[in-house]
Every structure is written in C-alpha cells, then in structure tokens.
Write a structure and sequence with these properties.
GO terms for molecular function: ABC-type transporter activity; ATP binding; ATP hydrolysis activity. Residues 4-235 form the ABC transporter domain. This is Multiple sugar transport system ATP-binding protein. InterPro entries: AAA+_ATPase, ABC_transporter-like_ATP-bd, ABC_transporter-like_CS, ABC_transpr_MalK-like, ABC_transpr_MalK/UgpC-like, Mo/tungstate-bd_C_term_dom, NA-bd_OB-fold, OB_MalK-like. Keywords: ATP-binding, Cell membrane, Membrane, Nucleotide-binding, Sugar transport, Translocase, Transport. By secondary structure, this protein is α+β, with helices and mostly antiparallel strands. The protein folds into two domains: 4-233, P-loop containing nucleotide triphosphate hydrolases (Rossmann fold, 3-Layer(aba) Sandwich); 234-387, Beta Barrel (OB fold (Dihydrolipoamide Acetyltransferase, E2P)), CATH 2.40.50. The chain contains ten helices and 22 strands. The protein has a six-stranded mixed beta sheet, with helices on both faces. A five-stranded antiparallel beta sheet has the order 13-12-11-14-22. A five-stranded antiparallel beta sheet has the order 15-21-16-17-20, with no helix packed on it. Helix 2 (93-103) packs across helix 3, helix 2 (93-103) runs parallel beside helix 4 and helix 3 crosses helix 4 (137-149). It is elongated, with a radius of gyration of 25 Å. The two termini are 36 Å apart. Adenosine-5'-triphosphate binds at residues 13, 15, 17, 19, 37, 39-45, 193.
C-alpha cells in the first residue's frame, strides 16, 4: 500500500522562518490529494519535505508504511514533476523520459519497454526522437510526466506542473493528468495556488494558509461547508460575498438584517447549523455565493428573499452575467481583502465599518440589467453561510 502520511510535520528554515507547522495528512493509496493555498503558504515546502528535497524539522513523513525522514530523496520511491519540467535540451524525448532509469543502470530493453508504454499513455509515440526545443509547451509537460511515470514510483509529487502553459492548454492538460492518474492509480500529491485546478483534480483538497492546514475535504464539501472565512473566500469564483449582518427574531422565524435590509433565514438552515440559534440577537458574518443570487424578475421567491440595490457594474460572460451592486453594510476583512483594509487605515481582520460593500451576483444570461438600473436581487436564503465575527469559524 502506497499510503503517504504526514504526522505533525513542521519546517523551520535556518533563518528562523516557520514555513509549515503541525501538518497532519493521510493520503490513501491511489488517492489524488491537492495542496492549495496562496503564495507563500508553505505548500511547496511541504511537498519538498515529502520528496526529500528539504529537511524535515518536526514530525514524521512515511511512504508506503516506511518512515522516510532520514531516507535520501533518490531512495524514497517517489517521483517529482516540477513546474519548470527540468528537461535536458541535448537529449531526445526518449532519452529524457528514460533518464532516471539509465542512471539506475536498468537493462536497456526494460527501459525501452517502459518508455514506450509511458509514451503511449501520454500520446508521445510520434515524438520520441525529437529534442525538447522542438516540442510544444504541452508536449514538454508530458515528457516531464513521462519521466515520473517510467519510474513506477509509490507516489507522484507535482509542484504546479501546469503553470507554464497558456490557459487553454492548462485546461486540456488538467484533464490529461486526471485521466493518467486514474489509469495508473498512483497516490498523488499535487501543489497549486489555483483553486479551480484544486477543485477539478483532487479527490480531496487540503487548504493551507500561512503554513497551517485550514481544512481538508472533498471538493464539494469544501464548497458547501467551508470551515472558516479563509476557506469560504478562497474556494469559489467569483468569491463568496462576505458581509456583516445582524440576526434577530425567533428560531421559527429568524431574520437577518444586512445594511438595513431584511432577509428571512431560509428553512433548513437551522437544521444544518443548529449553533446559529445562539446567535439570535448578535452580529455575524454572512456569506452569499454569487451563484445563489438571481434577478428577482426571473426568480421571484417569497417574502424576505430580496435585496434591492443599484447595478454598479455588469459583466456579460456569455454563460452568465456578473452583476455588481452596492450594499450599505460593513465590509468583512479577510486575508484576501486585507490590502483594501490597509488602504482604508486598518490592519486587523474583522469588519470595516465603511458602510459600503460591493456584492457580486451571478445572474442568468436572460437578465437585462444595465449599469445604473435599480435591481431586485433574489437570494436563495436556504444557502446562506454564517461565520462567527470574532473567530472567523463557520457556525454549525
Ligand atoms: P509559492 O506558491 O509562492 O511557491 P508556497 O505556498 O509554495 O508559495 P513556500 O515556497 O513553501 O510557499 O514558502 C513558504 C514560506 O517559507 C514563505 O514565507 C517563504 O518565503 C519561506 N521560504 C521558502 N524557502 C525558504 C528558505 N530556503 N529559507 C527561508 N525561508 C524560505
């Protein structure tokens, strides 16, 4: 079984920088786990510790049941695919793919067989005699993958392998990587800062911030039940709208006031979030995903499901229309919006009492909203998210 386990793993660089702290992850045999987070959150460092390219300061890493802390990289039986591909320009595709095996002094016919099989999997059969400079970006990326595949390792470790490709090719290669990993069934840890890549590739996704794991869950679970404001804001595009609101009313008829406008908290919310009861009479952070809003003319809804505002910006995307509108509510400052907060003169996470927040809604393309129009926005109030104002944690 090629399970990869990180138990209490930490990294402190010689200059005292703590890049990773107390990281606990169990990656099952054959699982595709994506490590995602903003730049500098420590995901590359975590991956390099598994690969053996970085010393492990604390905790234990094991691969296939064997603790590898003191095992040199080449003996860990894992294969790394780098962002830069690291191909040898003077070698052919065949030689590049087989390079690691040649170094290991494997028999020529075994190498040939493995390279041929990998080339077939990757659709590189016709390019085996070419040099890397005569390949497209996507083909070079495949060669880098081929080099990992022929080693038949216990795990693949991939560090942003698609970031040098243009947008269209990235989508294509993303599907390729998913297919290859499924076909080969090799345990994979994949690092990216791109949440779309993480959501589409991962069996599970581990979200990191400042060296610490925030949540690890299946993509849909992360989207539906983000553990805290950071995950809520990071997963989903456009990002979840986060506003300050006040809860009032009773358990049977809970009301939410946002910037002087009132919504009725949808049926079922309390069942999913029983702890919300304790917040009646208090302020909370409300999360509304853009896709949980619609032009009220297209989706009328009942009493307490509407916000009224003016369209400030309308972006037609073809498949849908992003409508930005203002709310007289306090802005919630998260890690992502900290820059804005700093400009406005505060440096803390929390709420910023400048009473204007721009909310983004994803309307159906049938909408006919123009900038400056007064609009009624229907909110799917059964899908509202709630977070504690002080702890930033989801209220469940
Ligand atoms: P990116 O996506 O930008 O590569 P990352 O999430 O992969 O970011 P790491 O490269 O793991 O993050 O870096 C985590 C932290 O450790 C950062 O603050 C970085 O500046 C720091 N760091 C990385 N390498 C070293 C080093 N050799 N010495 C000191 N600090 C380092």
């Amino acid at each position: 079984m090629a399970e990869v386990v990180l138990a209490g793993v930490g990294k402190v660089y010689p200059d005292g920088t703590r890049a990773v702290g107390d990281l606990n992850l169990n990656i099952a045999d054959g699982e595709f786990l994506v490590l995602v987070g903003p730049s500098g959150c420590g995901k590359t460092t975590a991956l390099r510790m598994v690969a053996g390219l970085e010393e492990i300061s604390e905790g234990r890493v094991s691969v296939g049941g064997r603790v590898v802390n003191r095992v040199p990289a080449r003996d860990r039986d894992v294969a790394m695919v780098f962002q830069s591909y690291a191909l040898y320009p003077h070698l052919s595709v065949r030689q590049n793919i087989g390079f690691g095996l040649t170094l290991r002094k494997m028999k020529k016919d075994v190498i040939r067989k493995r390279v041929d099989a990998a080339a077939k999997t990757l659709g590189l059969e016709d390019h085996l005699e070419r040099r890397p400079r005569n390949l497209s970006g996507g083909q070079r990326q495949r060669v880098a993958m081929g080099r990992a595949i022929v080693r038949e390792p216990q795990a693949f470790l991939m560090d942003e392998p698609l970031s040098n490709l243009d947008a269209k090719l990235r989508v294509q290669m993303r599907a390729e990587i998913a297919r290859i990993q499924r076909d080969l069934g090799v345990t994979t840890i994949y690092v990216t800062h791109d949440q779309t890549e993480a959501m589409t590739l991962g069996d599970r996704v581990a979200v990191m911030k400042k060296g610490e794991l925030q949540q690890v869950a299946a993509p849909q679970e992360l989207y539906d039940r983000p553990a805290n404001l950071f995950v809520a804001g990071f997963i989903g595009s456009p990002a979840m709208n986060l506003l300050k609101g006040d809860l009032s009313g009773t358990e049977g008829d809970m009301r939410l006031s946002i910037g002087g406008q009132e919504l009725r908290v949808g049926a079922g919310v309390l069942e999913r979030r029983p702890a919300l009861r304790d917040y009646i009479g208090r302020s909370v952070v409300v999360g509304i995903r853009p896709e949980d809003m619609e032009d009220a003319r297209l989706s009328p809804g009942g009493e307490g499901t509407r916000l009224t505002s003016t369209a400030e910006l309308v972006e037609a995307m073809g498949s849908d229309v992003l409508v930005h509108f203002g709310m007289e509510a306090a802005t919630v400052v998260t890690e992502d919006t900290k820059e804005l907060a700093r400009d406005a003169g505060t440096d803390v996470l929390g709420t910023l009492e400048t009473p204007h927040t721009t909310v983004v809604a994803r309307f159906s393309p049938r909408t006919e909203v123009q900038v400056g129009d007064s609009i009624d926005v229907h909110v799917d109030t059964a899908r509202l998210h709630f977070f504690d104002l002080d702890t930033s944690k989801s209220i469940w």
